[in-house]
Automatic annotation (TrEMBL):
Its EC number is 6.3.2.17. Residues 293-413 form the Mur ligase C-terminal domain. Belongs to the folylpolyglutamate synthase family. This is tetrahydrofolate synthase.
Length: 437
């Protein structure tokens, strides 16, 4: 297959093969591919919110130290291939097509032998393992897709470090209806004798993690963000003091302090596991981190911020950030959500703060809630809502309504952030041209 054919193959599998949790099919597929994942070492990251940010911090710092680091994340905002990257470069088209062809060939034989067809996520994960092995990665930063214990990424055995970010209620239909049940699944990435770093969690979650560490003889470090102090901040970044060291972080959002502290503790553990980084490399790594779509400023006149808040816990964090950075400001929302998310909770938490809300249907996704249905749900709490036919229309309406000191905030799903960013850039160009006429 060429790259276009490989993408069409993935799209077809996404439509036809439903997502499942379980390792049986993944084990069979990887065995037929020669188990390339066994030749790599891992930092495995699970949790509800903050996985991508912690990986971004680690990826930047470890790369600064000269290690060949692989990164596997999902979803991606701007390029499909961005989910698989090594040494700062996403997988090239030819490599993706090459390894996907190998995986597809193995699947053809596998299904002929009577095994079920792997899911799109399992296929992408297999491609990542093949690519990381071929690139000779020193270490792979591996993000869990959903849950932990039965996620396709949990086929790995060589986990040096498991990192657990904030765990809250999400994917209940797959993971359970209580925090303890969900924590049990996410803590399933903890392997016998591995090291663990967790942020400070709610009591019932900490109990599960501590028990899982005890039963697996895993050494646990609790990264406590309360021990870090923010000494300078704004919508374009913040500076924190942690363990007497000063770190500049070019990411806003009050939750990024916790993610940075988790990453710093992970780096400290890795120091003793054969991957040391100097104090300067840690500082430089955090300062040069790039992770868009998390309370990211797209424009300043007026202020336009995009955030991936898509579940109740993320909505709580977003509200805290709004009240922290934009107290007293007039807020204009652009919202789009997935129908299978707890969007009612997100609505209850966020929409009372808005002066006007424009709803969109997340483009090109079968899970997207129609803009009109979202508007009807919002209207029960805030009547100042209007459904729009596209991202472009919502952005144009928001800009048309906003005055200089107002804030436009787009959120509800990570999936539309790429097109939202492109649309805002086009709108900025158009406005600049109009000013110059």
């Amino acid at each position: 297959m060429n790259y276009q054919e490989s993408r069409e193959y993935i799209d077809r599998v996404t439509r036809e093969i439903p997502s499942v949790l379980g390792l049986e099919h993944m084990r069979e597929l990887m065995k037929r591919l020669g188990n390339p994942q066994e030749d790599l070492k891992y930092v495995h990251i699970a949790g509800t919110n903050g996985k991508g940010s912690v990986i971004a911090f680690l990826y930047s710092a470890l790369s600064q130290a000269g290690y060949c680091v692989g990164r596997y994340v999902s979803p991606t905002l701007y390029s499909y291939r961005g989910r698989i990257a090594v040494a700062g470069q996403m997988i090239d088209r030819d490599s993706f097509a090459l390894y996907l062809t190998q995986v597809a060939d193995a699947i053809q034989v596998m299904t002929a032998d009577g095994f079920p067809h792997p899911t799109a996520f399992e296929i992408e994960t297999a491609v990542a393992f093949l690519y990381f092995k071929n690139k000779g990665c020193d270490l792979v930063l591996l993000e869990v897709g959903m849950g932990g214990n039965l996620d396709a990424t949990n086929i790995i055995n060589n986990t040096l470090l498991a990192v657990l970010v904030s765990i809250s209620m999400d994917h209940m239909s797959f993971l359970g209806n209580t925090l303890s049940e969900i924590a049990e699944k996410k803590a399933g990435i903890i392997k016998e004798g591995s090291h663990v770093v967790t942020v400070r969690q709610k009591t019932e979650v900490m109990e599960v993690i501590c028990e899982k560490c005890r039963s697996n003889h895993a050494e646990c470090t609790v990264a406590d963000a309360a021990q870090a102090q923010v000494v300078e901040e704004g919508v374009e970044g913040q500076t924190i003091i942690y363990e007497k060291e000063c770190y500049r972080i070019p990411l806003a959002g009050i939750y990024q302090k916790e993610n940075a502290v988790a990453a710093l503790n992970a780096l400290k553990v890795l120091d003793g596991l054969g991957f040391p980084t100097t104090a300067e490399q840690k500082k430089e790594g955090l300062e040069k981190v790039s992770w868009n779509g998390r309370f990211t400023v797209l424009d300043t006149e007026p202020l336009f911020v995009v955030d991936g808040a898509h579940n109740p816990a993320a909505a709580d964090m977003l509200v805290q950030s709004i009240e922290h950075y934009f107290k007293g400001k007039r807020l204009i929302y652009i919202m789009g959500v997935f129908s299978d998310k707890d969007y009612q909770s997100v609505i209850r938490k966020t929409v009372p703060l808005a002066d006007q809300i424009f709803t969109i249907q997340t483009p090109n996704n079968v899970r997207a809630l129609p803009a009109q249905k979202l508007a009807e749900a919002i209207e029960k709490i805030n009547p100042h809502v209007e459904a729009t036919e596209s991202v472009e229309a919502a952005v144009e309406k928001a800009y048309g309504l906003a005055e200089d000191k107002d804030v436009i905030l787009a959120f509800g799903s990570l999936s539309f952030i790429g097109i939202m960013t492109e649309t805002v850039e086009e709108e900025k160009k158009k406005r600049k041209e109009q000013q110059n006429d």
